[in-house]
Amino acid sequence: MRDENKKNACNKLAFEWLQCFNALHENAETHLIKRLVYSYKFDELRSLLNVYLDLKNRNHRLIWDAVCIIVDFENIAEKIGDNIDSGLIWILKDLVQGHYRHSSHLALSFAQCEWVIQTFRSKWPAAEHPSEGTYGSDNAWDASQFINSFIDRIGSFTDVEAVKALQRLRYASEDSYTPRIKMVAAEQHRLVVEASYMPLPLAAVKAITCNTLPKSMADLQALIIEELEVVQAKIRSDDVDSRCVFYDDNNVAHKEERCSSALIGLLRQGVEGIEYTPEQHVANDKEVDITCAIEKLRLPIEVKGQWHKDLWHAAYTQLDRLYTQDWRAENRGIYLVLWFGQNQPGNKILQTPGRGITKPKTAEELQEMLKVNSQATLQGRVEIFVLDLE
Question: What is the superkingdom listed in this entry's lineage (predicted)?
Answer without folding.
Answer: Bacteria
